[in-house]
Amino acid sequence: MIPVETTERIHHTNLNDNNAEVMIRLQNINKVYRTDTVETLAINNISLNIDKGEFLSIMGPSGCGKSTLLNIMGLLDNPTKGEVSIDKQDTTKLNDKKLAAFRNRKLGFIFQSYHLINDLKVLDNVELPLLYRNSTAKERRQLATEALEKVGLSNRMKHFPTQLSGGQKQRVAIARAIVGQPEIILADEPTGNLDSAMGNEIMEILLQLNERDGTTIVMVTHDENMARKTHRLVRLFDGSQVQ
Amino acid sequence: MLKNYFKIAIAVLKRRKFFTFISLFGISFTLTILIVITAFIDNVASANYPEVNRDRSLYINELRQKATKTSGQMNSPASFWYLDTYVRTLKTPAKVAISSMFAATNSYVNNKKLVINLKYTNDQFWDVIEYNFIEGKPYTSQQIKNGERVAVISEDTKKSYFGDVPSVVGKYIEADNVQYRVSGVVKSVPVTMLVSYADLFVPYTVSKVDYKHKSLMGQYTAVLLANSKDDFPKIQAEYAAVVSKIKPDNKDFDVFVSRAEPYVESYLGGSPIGDPESGKLWKLKFFGYIFALLFMLLPTLNLININISRIMERSSEIGVRKAFGASGMTLVGQFVVENIILTLLGTIIAIVLSFIILQIINNGDLIANLHLTINLTVLYYSLLACLVFGLLSGVYPAWRMSRLQVVTALKAQ
């Protein structure tokens, strides 16, 4: 395993001590994209442990495999080789149904382009992860309202996503990611489409989630300033971990 | 969950109005045509006024003379003499109605030409075919024997010939230059009822064609009323025994065939569908079902195509749902439910459209006195077919979509 170097830490926690519990464990991950003529190595033998409660950022130039790595961590994509375990569960052994349930319970996602369902109102969008659990409509409504309150959007519940600004959309996406109270949040360039003020707002919400609720967060970003605010930074280049 | 599906289904329908229109048009148009066709077939084929005894009647509509060597054949209705000699005399039927095919004759009222369709009948015709007499009564067997020029007319004929008068019994009506005294007026029958439709019914004895002429072929048909449906084999066997002794009356032919059959089968002898010898009805039903299936296949394929093209459009939603915990099967369920909502919507439109079209047919002049209704059985099967093809057209695209990798689905936006 390639040793991971911690670059900077603003929020002081005991993350790297030997007693810290590993939340995400990647072992010798390879990802190869094949076409008829070309074989592209997107991830080259990456091993990485992310501790419970850690806020980790991944940086690197475009096309270096950051998002691919995040998708593999989030069980949205399969590695060509290697193992992914989350909270001590080897995910390679899970079938489609179990994988879906596992994602639902453990993971929350925030995407650069928000990926809200424009046909549904804000509240319905936030409720979405709870639809795939055994919860009543009343419970769903209550949890979604609470999540929207956390991101400061309780006054926009009846709006459609198309009626919101970029920052508001991303806050809805965060509410959707946290509504199911997952232990891990994976954010793929969550501030990438926003101006710096909006970006900072979103970053503050994520930091709060990490500090207050102890949520493990992995964030892909291009923004050095944002990355500096996290516990640890991992840099990738051409599919390999360089820092 | 279902409420959420319903919300999204309605939102998707609203979003792409043209696609929705095409889908709904395909479903509702197909079902409307099926409902209207089956309502028509049901009306024509089943026991309705005045042929209410059709379920316990056998029909002899056709005689067939065949040449074994040349494979030539001649089909024709029977002569009155044939039916009177060989059919009326059968022991097993309760009654035998003999009547001619209706033939158009001209009549003039106030110098205006009026086409009157005339039918010759025997006396038992009035017992087997149960007309509603608005006034008067049928002519008697004695009047027939006497060759009296008496007639029963339809209500429509009464109106068009005599105008709006309270009673016409005893008055005279002229058709084909012959004066008939009206003995009764019956409720009109649509032209689709081939045996019972006519404007003017008169005794066979007043026919200008010699009813005693000994030839097999002619212009008459017979309805054999059985005491119950169970008597059919007995009647058919007795008639077959009689037919087996009859020789063709034309020297070009060497085989004579005629059968007493239930209503629908009796009209299929000469059709390309019907095997002239046996098994006509199942073939008709078989081809009918195949036709309906192919007909239903068109909107199904159309829906599948439209659904597939909608997949990519909604791939971001699919990706998000999968990312947040929807399994492939859950998504298949969602798409199928959405599709069933669409199909049910199409069915409701189809029922409304069919009702309107049937009202137009019933009230229009297309076929007078025809009263088509939406048959409950037809409705039931239409709904069933709808659900099945809602499922079929939803499952395949949903299955394809559910196999989509989350990453691929999210990137496709």
Descriptive report:
- The complex is a heterodimer of chains A (243) and B (413).
- Chain A is α/β, with parallel strands linked by helices and 243 residues long.
- Chain A has a domain at 53-70 and 96-241: Rossmann fold, CATH 3.40.50.300.
- Chain A has 7 helices and 10 strands.
- A 6-stranded mixed sheet of chain A has the order 6-7-8-3-9-10, sandwiched between helices. A 4-stranded antiparallel sheet of chain A has the order 2-1-4-5, covered by helices on one side.
- In chain A, β4 and β5 form a beta hairpin.
- The longest helix of chain A is centred in the C-terminal third of the chain and has 18 residues, at 196-213.
- Chain A is globular.
- Chain B has helices at residues 2-15, 17-45, 80-87, 125-128, 141-146, 155-162, 232-244, 263-266, 280-313, 315-323, 328-363, 376-402, 406-411, and strands spanning 57-60, 63-66, 73-76, 95-100, 103-109, 112-121, 133-136, 150-154, 172-175, 178-186, 200-203, 220-225, 255-257.
- Chains A and B meet through α2, β6 and α3 of A and α1, α10, α11 and α13 of B.
- Chain A: InterPro entries: AAA+_ATPase, ABC_transporter-like_ATP-bd, ABC_transporter-like_CS, MacB-like_ATP-bd, P-loop_NTPase.
- Chain A: Residues 24-242 form the ABC transporter domain.
- Chain A: Belongs to the ABC transporter superfamily. Macrolide exporter (TC 3.A.1.122) family.
